[in-house]
Amino acid sequence: MKILLTNDDSFRSPGIKALYEALSEVAEVTVVAPASEMSAISLAITLNRPLRAYKIEENGLPGWYVDGTPADCVKIGVGALLKEKPDFIFSGINIGSNVGLNANYSGTVAAAIEGAMLGIPSVAVSLADYFSRDFRGSAKAAVEVLKLLENSDSDIGRYELLNVNVPGIPPEELKGIKVTRVSRSSFREVFDHRKDVRDRDYWWMGGVVHTFEPVPDGDDEQVMDGWVAVTPLKVDMTAENTLHQLRNSGWERRWRE
Question: How many CB atoms lie within 10 A of CB 44?
Answer without folding.
Answer: 15
